[in-house]
Amino acid sequence: MCGIIGYLGDRQATPILMESLKRLEYRGYDSAGVAVLEMPTSGSARLTSVTKSEAKVDTLIDKLKANMPSGKLGIGHTRWATHGKPTYINAHPHTDCHSRIFVVHNGIIENFAELKAELEAAGHEFTSDTDTEVVPHLIEANYKGDFLSAVRAALRRIRGAYALAMFTTDDPELLVGARLNAPLVVGLGENEYYIASDITAIIPYTKRVLVLGEGEVAAVTPLGAEVSTLDGVSVEPKLIHVDWDLSQAQKGGYQHFMLKEIHESSEAVANAMRGRLTDDGTVSFREFDVPDDDLRRHSEVLLLGMGTSLHAAMVGEYVIEDWAGIPAKAMDASEFRYRRPTFGKDALAVVITQSGETADTLVGLHQAKERGALTVAVTNVVASSAARDADGAIYLHSGPEIGVASTKTLLAHLVSLYLLGLRLATVHGRVSLERRRELVESLRALPDHVQSIVDREKEIAEIAHKYSRYRNFMYTGRGLGYPLALEGAIKLKEISYIHAEGTTGGELKHGPIAMLDENFPVIAICTASATKDKMVSNVHEIVARNAPVLALVTEGDRSLAKVATDVFVMPAVEEAAGAILNTVMLQLFAYHVAVELGQDVDQPRNLAKSVTVE
Ligand code: F6R
Predict the structure, then answer these.
(1) Residue numbers of the domain that contains 554
(2) How remote is the CA of residue 307 from the centroid of ligand 1, in Å?
(3) Rounded CA gap, 39 and 581, in Å?
(4) What is the mean pLDDT of residues 387-412?
(5) How far is it, in rounded angstroms, from Cα 320 to Cα 553?
(6) Which are the contacts of 462, defined by CB distance < 8 A and separation ≥ 6?
């Protein structure tokens, strides 16, 4: 949510800001801007060149190319609007009354109205509707020649969430970053430094990254980066080496990142398993290395996530309950935080978050910790907030996911939850060696099975072509098929803007069936499971209402061959593995419907990849 980048070094800042903003665009893309501290001509004052666009980053880049600011210190921003419409005036960077302080921001300043009133009363003039603009004015109000002290004093007054990159025209060799409840990293290059809202922005320039902690400020100068708290106490920052490479963050010949990422599914599934599973089903997680006895003491499991990650949590709920025989509950993290949950220190809380930065999920994690639960983050981003704040981490190792809609990381989440389920089943003595071996075999065969679905893309595109004329869709399933129905629906609606909803096969006739007619197709997940026959009956009920049905069925099962309008035949695999294959099919279906309708698949309207505000 909002991408930010800052540069200080030996090279020209503008081309680097432009490239980085392009890579950050997936975080938000309703407007963009940069500020570059220009090199003074002899005797003249230092000026800052500000360029903004009220459209996507490409428009900003065209403007910059036509009039390239020259300077070695600069900041840039691509916006996902929270306060104030996506207009030129509201685009970042924002500045103070005298254009001496420039700021880009990701997050929400919760007490901005109160601060703005106070600053206006003191004579500050505001030009935008944003919450961000209070930051440069507040720094200005505290600025008495020491920029860093003024930044700290200003930030001590701010409540809410921020990741900030800032500079002042008074010091061409100082770039400042700060964070609270929003991610920020400092990249260390050769004679150059970067501040960025995420690693993807700076992958081509450096793999050495400092991760700032909550309430920390980084002062970056040509001599290096110094990190301190808002009270000025020095902090030893955490240095990490990033193993993502540039090719993973580029489209590599695919029309969209989403398609490329679906094509990386098989690898993502293999990577999520790599080094974690022995032949007899013993599972080990390097960064969540809890002894069996400790794990056994946690007799209930709470799974928290949002959106697609919540659907992964729901699959995890079914699997853990079934395999480990212990209570498991998946919850929307944004709801969890406002309830009075009954669980406590006997619980294992599993937070599922690709980015590791989703605000609602992080609050859920913190609450679970406060109640004494053992916590683990299942996440794709090393050293993300979730990974750092939880007791342990299960990393997905999927490489960067740029398409706004989660695809390959969902599959990696599911595999990780299966491994966790197997581990819990083992420590609770609920799974025989024979069953473990069966599951290992099924998991190990998954990458090839996943590839076999991806290889059928053309067939799926043809089905998508046929169905893309409808404006409403119902997805339905039972057991593991239910979260998949919800996921199929979210994927379709978020990238194609077609109305879609998901329901259990059982719930269908308690209301949703009233919607169905010949213009309201149903995607029915009828692959092999304990409730498959019930789903077959549901499909008969749907067909009786004249709704077209696309049924996902297991090979060899002919029960719907003459009933459903279309069937898509899946390989015969174990049920949990089947859920992953069904997911890939539904992702490709949604992708091709959206492409058919000419939608901007990688950057759907109103959305952003990482939702770092509540
Ligand atoms: C949908 C999608 C979102 C995310 C959700 C949580 O395709 O990508 O629903 O799943 O915003 O994001 P993370 O997993 O980063 O916490």
Answers:
(1) 457-596
(2) 5
(3) 56
(4) 94
(5) 24
(6) none
Does any ligand 1 atom lie closer than 6 A to the CB of residue 309?
Answer: yes
pLDDT at 294 over 80: yes
| Of 200, 355, 384, best ligand 1 pocket probe by most atoms within 8 Å of the beta carbon | 355
Say what the pLDDT of residue 480 is.
98
Residue 612 lies in a domain: no
Give the rounded percent of residues in the chain with a pLDDT score beyond 90.
85
The answer to whether the beta carbons of residues 476 and 538 sit under 8 Å apart is yes
Q: Is 380 in the pocket of ligand 1 (CB under 6 A)?
A: no
3-state secondary structure (DSSP) of residue 198: coil
DSSP alpha helix (H) spans, 331-407: 333-336, 359-370, 385-389
- Kindly state the helix (H) or strand (E) to which residue 548 belongs, with its residue range: none
Beta-carbon contacts of 28 under 8 Å, excluding residues fewer than 6 positions away, are 1, 2, 3, 78, 79, 80, 81, 608
Clarify whether residues 500 and 538 are in a common domain.
Answer: yes
Q: Where are the alpha helices (DSSP H) in 68-160?
A: 112-121, 134-142, 147-156
Residue 257 CA to ligand 1 center (angstroms) comes to 16
Q: Is 353 in the pocket of ligand 1 (CB under 6 A)?
A: yes
Q: For 129-138, how does the pLDDT look when each residue is reduced to its tens digit (9 = 90+)? A: 999 999 999 9
Catalytically active residues are 2, 609
Cα(594) to ligand 1 centroid in Å equals 18
Torsion sign across C-alpha atoms 191, 194, 199, 202: negative
Do 358 and 304 lie in a common domain? yes
CA distance 187 to 207: 7
For residue 246, the one-letter residue type is L
Return the closest-CA partner of residue 33 out of 9, 47, 14: 14
- DSSP reduced 3-state for 433: helix
Q: Both 433 and 461 in a single domain?
A: no
Ligand 1 within 6 A of CB of 358: yes
Does this model's pTM top 0.90? My answer is no
Residues 70 and 81 in one domain: yes
pLDDT digits (tens, 9 = 90+) for 355-381: 999 999 999 999 999 999 999 999 998
Is residue 256 pLDDT above 90, yes or no?
A: yes
Which tokens sit at 63? 């403007």
Gap between the Cα atoms of 322 and 439, Å rounded: 13
Task: List pLDDT tens digits, range 136-190.
Answer: 999 999 999 999 999 999 999 999 889 999 999 999 999 999 999 888 999 999 9
- The rounded Å distance from CA 406 to ligand 1 centre is 6
Give the CA dihedral 194, 200, 203, 207, nearest 10 degrees: 80
3-state DSSP call for residue 334? Answer: helix
User: By the 8 A CB rule, do 543 and 551 touch?
Assistant: no
Residue 309 CA, closest ligand 1 atom number = 10
539, 527 Cβ separation under 8 angstroms: no
- For 287, phi then psi, to 5°, come to -95, 10
- pLDDT exceeds 70 at position 43: no
Residue from 200, 262, 306, 315 whose mutation best tests the ligand 1 pocket (most atoms within 8 A of CB): 306
Q: Residue 607: pLDDT above 90?
A: no
Question: Which residues make Cβ contacts (< 8 Å) with residue 338, sequence separation at least 6?
Answer: none
Cα–Cα distance for residue pair 183/191, rounded to 1 Å: 24
Whether residue 322 sits in one domain with residue 300: yes
Domain end, chosen from 206, 231, 250, is at 250
* 202 Cα to the center of ligand 1, angstroms: 22
Same domain, 14 and 132: yes
